[in-house]
Structures are given as C-alpha cells and as structure tokens.
Design a protein that fits this description.
Chain lengths: 478, 443
Amino acid sequence: MTVFEKSTTGRMGFRLPKSDVKEREYDFPTHLTRQKPLNLPELSEPDVVRHYTELAGKNYSVDKGFYPLGSCTMKYNPKVNEYTASLEGFTEIHPYQPWEFTQGSLKLMFELKEALCEITGMDDMTLQPAAGAHGELTGMLIARAYHLSRNDTKRHIALVPDSAHGTNPASAAMAGFDVIELKSTEDGLVDLEELKRYLNEEVAVLMLTNPNTLGLFEKDIIKIAQMVHDVGALLYYDGANLNAIMGRVRPGDTGFDIVHLNLHKTFSAPHGMGGPGSGPVGVKKFLAEFLPIPVIRKENETYYPDFNLPKSIGRTRSFYGNFSVLVKAYTYILIMGKDGLTHASRMAVLNANYLRALISRFLKIASPRVCMHEFVVDGSDFVKQTNVKILDVAKRLLDYGVHAPTVYFPLIVHEDMMIEPTETESKDTLDRFAKILEAIIEESKTNPELVKNAPYKTPVRRLDDVTATKKPIYRWKK
Amino acid sequence: MHPYIPHTDEEIKQMLHTIGVQHLDDLYKDVPVTIKDLRIPEGLDEFTVVSLLKSLADKNKVIEKSKIFMGAGIYAHYIPQVVKALASRPEFVTAYTPYQAEVSQGTLQALFEYQTMICELTGMEVANSSMYDGASALAEAILMAHRINGKHKILMSKAVHPEYVQTSHTYASAQKLSFKQIPLDNFGRTDLQILKESIDENTCAVVIQYPNFFGVIEDLKAIKENIKDAVFIVVVEPFALSVLESPATFGADIVVGDGQPLGIPMNYGGPTVGFLATLEKHVRKMPGRLIGETKDIEGNTGYVMILQTREQHIRREKATSNICTNHALMAVTNAIFMSTMGPDGLREVAKRSYSNAHYLADRMKEKGFNLLFDGPFFNEFAVRFTRDYDSKWRKIFERGVLGPLPLGWYFEEYRDCGLACATEVNTKQSIDEFVELLGCDEL
C-alpha cells in the first residue's frame, strides 16, 4: 500500500511551537497564490514510522548480508562513519558562514584531499563532485580546458574502451567530446594495436579503468601512458576499481594525469540506495589551475577556500560538495591507516580469487588470468545447455537470501555475471555463496522451470519491467 | 586483525591453497609496486578517531538555529527526530541502486512516492528520482532544453542563484550554448520588457527563479505570456510552493530546485538533493533515473526502474545524462519529511516563515534600513545596510548571529546589501535582539 492510501484527512505528524509573532495574510497577487491545497499524505507520527519501517523491511542491504555487485564495491559501512558525520559541529553549519569559523570542516577537507592525493599519486584535488560520474564530467571538462588553454582546438576525440562503465562515454559526450570506442583484446585488455590506430592529434584523452571492468590489471599501463602522451593526449583514470590496488600502485605513478575516486566505494561511505556518493577528482600539477572553484588551501595554520583561479572550469555544483560523505571517508582513512588500506586491497583481491577458484569448478570464467578484486563469469555455455538465463540464476539467488551479482555487464561478455566480494566478507560467506550458486546450477539442469520462475521468497515475485516501460506509470494516482 | 576485515592467518593460508598460489603477492603479478612508503599515518582505534573528529567539529562555530538569518539556498529548519530516525535506517543507508527490484521494493516504492510528491509540489507530470543538488539540476535542465528544441540561446534572469548560474555555465561550456542575463526592474523582478525584446527564434530556454534569489516572487504568468515557445525553466523553493501557485499552472516545461529545506540538515552545503520535474511529452529527454509502477507475475503491485534506454548504461554517449549514483537517500528523506508534515504542516511552516520574515523586515525598516526591492516576498528579502556590509556581517557573526548574506560577494552594485531570511526556527525574541544588534553603532 502506498503512503497516499494510508492517509487520513486531518492528521499531521508534526507540531510547531507557539509564536508571539503575529500571523500575517499573504500579500501576493491573487493569481500567484496557491488555490488548491497540496495533495500530500496526512499521517500521524506512528503511521509514518510504520510505513517506512515496512518499506525498510523490503530492502536488501549490506547490513543484511552478502552483496557481491561487481563494480560497485559493496563493502561494509562502518557505523562510526555515521556517527562522526552526524556530529552537530558538522551538520549544523551553513556553507556561507565566514570560513574563519569553519576551520574544522576546511581542515578535514584539506587533510582528506592530501591523503587521497598521496594514495593516488596526484598533486591536487577537488572534493566537489557529488558522484563518480560527476567526477568524470569534471575531469573531462578539465581535460577540455587544458587543451583549449594551449589553443589546441582540434582535439575532439575521447577514446573509451568497450569494457568501460557506461558513464565514461556519457560523461565524455557531455564534456563535448566525440567518443570512439576501443575494442578490447580477447583477454579483455586494451588492444595496443587498436589503440595505436586511433591515437593522433585529434585525440584529447583516453579514459581507462584500471583494473578494468573484467577485473584485470592493464599490465601494459606504462606503455599505454607513453603512447597517449606521445600524441599530446591526456590519460584519465576511472577510480571505480581502486579498491584492488590501494597501497600498492598509484595511478599517478603509472602515467595517469587525471583521476576520479568513488568515496562511496573504496572509502566505505555507504551507497544510500544509489547516493549520495562523492567523486573527488585529482590532477597532476600542470592541470591544477583548471580545478573547479573553490579549491581548499592551507596557509600557515589557516585553511580557506580559494576562489581565485582564473582558469578554473567554474563550478560543477553548489557549495563544497557532499561534505558529510567526506567526513565518512576521512574517518575511514584514519581508522584504517596505511597498513589497513593496503591490507584491505590485498584481502579484496584474495577474496575475489578465492571465490573465482570455487566457482570455476562449475562455471566458466571469462578470463583465464588472475583477477583483481572482481571477476566475470561467462554463462553462455551454461545458458546453451540449460536454456536458463543468467538473469534467472540471479533471481534464484535472491531466494537463498543473498544479493545477486551484477548481470549483463560488462557488455562485451554475454550472459555474464560480475562478482565483487570485497575484503569485508569472510571465507565462510564466500564458501556459502559458492555452494548456493552451485546448487542453483544443479537446479537449472534438473528443474529449469523452478529457476526460470524465481524468485519465490521475496516481497514481490518477478516483476514485469517491459510493460512498466511501455505503459509507464510515473506517479501514484487515486 | 582488523575490525572490518575478518580474515585470520589460517584462513588466508587455506584460501591461497585453494587458489593454487603460495603468496598473496602471486595474485599481484601483473601489478607493479610504485608505493614504497605510503605517507599516511598508522591506523587508529575508534575511540581515538572519534575524539579527533569531535575536536575538528568543535573548531566549527555552530550558530543557534533561532539566530540564523541567512538562507540563500541552504535553510535552517526544524527537522523532526522521526525523519532522522527513519532516514538513518541501515536498510536504506547500506543498500545500493535497485538493480534487483524484487529485493529493493523499499527503495523503489519510497522513490516512487517521492516522485509523486514532487509532482504534487511543482504541478508537473513527471519527476525523476533525484539529482545531485539544485545547481546541477538546473544545469541539466538547460541541457535538456537544448535536447528538446536544438536551439542555443539561454536567457537567464539576474535573480537566479549565482552558484546555480556558475554551475550552468560550466555544464554548458562544452555545448556551444550562449547565455544572456536579463536584468531586474525596480520591484526586483526579472525585467519583462527586456526579456521580451531578448526573445528571438534562437532562444532555447528562459530561466526564472520563483521566488527569485533576492526573495521576490516573480510573476510567472506575465513571463510565460512573453516568451513564446522557448522552454520555460523555473527554479523553485519547495516550502514556497505550498503557498504559491505551482509553476505548471503558468506553463512551465521544467521545474527544478533543491530539496534541502525538506528535512535535510545544512551539512555545510552537502549532501542535499536536486529535484527535476517536467511534462510527460518531454520525458525521454529527461536526465536521471525514473521509477515506475508495475505488477509481478502474481498480479501484485511492485516498482521497477523504467525508461532505462535513455540512460548511460545502455545509450552510453547518447544518453540523456551521465547520472548513475544520484541522491536517493536524500530523496527518500524528503519523502519521509513530507509524509510527517503533511500538507498542513508544510503550509504552517511556510506561514510562520512568511510572518517571521515580514516581522523582521518591518523591524529593520523601523531601525532605518531600507529594503532593496518593493516586490512581494516569501521568506527572504534584500536589505540595504552600510557601505562595507561584509565586515559588519563578520562582526555580527562573532556575536553568535548568522546575519544576512553579503550580496557584494556576487553583485558589485549591491555591496551595501544583505539577503535576509527567516524561517519557523526564528523567534520574536531572536528577531528583536538581532535588529537591536544591527542598529548597534560599534558594529
């Protein structure tokens, strides 16, 4: 039942204090004054609590169990992060307070920026972008501003491998580039021959995820960077998969000029059902003057927002970015420390390879190489044998009380499943998941209809998204 | 051992054995080592980190809510505890984008209801399930307008939030769009005559804020009558819409705004949430994610993401925007807040804010300060103070009051002015004391 159907006219879950300021009649022109009252739900506080508690009960979440969505890094979200981000000294601050009186927030942002620069090997950073894709757009606008500042106006191409996240081409297009897709090798790596064919003076930037979306490290990265730089283009790092290499290799040291990070992935800020996230963008020194305003700086022991960047790309959103997400990432870095961060990436890689080894006993893995923090299952043979789709397997997993991996991504593998366990999962969880998956593969052979009609135990059964899109219902109506 | 990472040495050994390698480093054979010594301090225990963070939070000066007289995009409102309690439920906080709809009905239904509430506020037919903030929502609305008619000239009122304007310029910088600013008339409204003269066949969109950045309520009816078929984009403040006629009534094509006033703390400016609503005929040009109602195979009502063929994971470079992670948790917070307040609650807060702001304006006038504009206002208004208002403002702050925003930051010609705001959190006493302080000669 929707919240609207639970509404009873005349109820309210809120009461204002008494006031001795005299109530006034509105002096707006009549035609600008609302005539029809708002049709919002009318509920008492207990009604509200029960409605949203009921909805919460219909959600799967990391706190509930294993959530191996490839490329999303659903690691455990420490509770202390929530606490520090909710401190009144952080939440009750107006962004336009004099900066002399927000030294705590500015210091936190400055130190977070320094730590992230150190982890990525970059020289300066903005914390403004609100999400990974927002960071990509920011980074690509910086690339554009850089080339234009050198009067290098013919660079209109962004090269993006076919294994890239869908946001890469979309962000590049928003930043005004024509996107050319690079085909990967059979191994799923950047094809150096193909890259060479496309590299010329019209290329502005190559966008790479490393490790890539197949969970493989681009082992020729130094050479790729050299090739890109030789034609005057820039190398962009999509940080979605940084969790695999943190503490071991810094993107900046392998030739990347611009990186974006996902604080809601690698740095344990929660995903909030799809946001808010945070997507800081780091750059090498020669690009720092293009960062969005304001950039947080330190002079003596004072921190301040610097708006004086004549070559800045401007603003990419209001104020300073998703500050409370920054508090969570900062808290995490302090608790983990250098050894903890390195340990996290190593355990993430260990978990992925362990689960990969278990699953390879009964399903084909897309690449024979050792994986990083995630790997891709190639279900095409399985689908041929059983006529059960990978989507069906995913739905059946829900019945066993685990979340399904990412399915049908990356687009270059068909009937695939992309699995990322992250470092916060125990060996027992991985063992159990492999057993469940194996049981479903078995079910698909002996009783395919069972799997095709899954799920059975979820709050709703298989949903019809075809009709939902063909005859869309965007809002509740009486 | 580490509190967030469960592996014991014994388990690591077993796992390596199953993989068929000797050492952890064997898994990294493709990866060079470039970090000798990561210059990050050793990890700390939770107790120490909490006190460190507390000491940082204490370095910020928290102004008592009743003494905040500034809005300008971020507003001090009272947030009922029930909103915080529900919005911080881990089932919401630690879930991801609802890629598996059957186990994400909580997220999907809450967002569907959010979309409905935003439609109700704005009067529009479709709202998406959130943007990053009001500024980026406006920037995306402008790109959307360009997709609708392919034209290039954007007419933007001078009274649109300066940070929204800056953000729009950044987003549009790569799209060959040009901007023209429309000045204000003596009432503080967008100058109708100049707007009318600026319209031509290349005009893509007209952008108006309602109430505008200086607090004045624009006459959307008169504007719509003068802009022909340019895409009409209106930036709104949600509480004002509980008492003002909706932009849809006046023919708006796209309505955007920031949901921060609806149950989200000031958070130093983020995260907030942007909303974007439009007409059904424009839905395929719309950025962001949409949730729709459907049935499951047993005929039960359920919710799924719809029209994903517009989105980046399918259309890639041809997508209607690059948004993937949006601000779902904040959108759900808005929905919880609106469910708690109901239509009467919103209207009462709006009425109290209006009455307090007008009482504040009257008291300031008594003290000899003049309002910059004569147009009707809701809960914000521009007022003339002294020549160097910025430094006076800082001194006021030192007395524990967040005074009106110094307008000189953004408008050289208004260096002596401030943008004042009152909401339901201010009291008669706090207003009276503030006005006394303003009149104080030593400031």
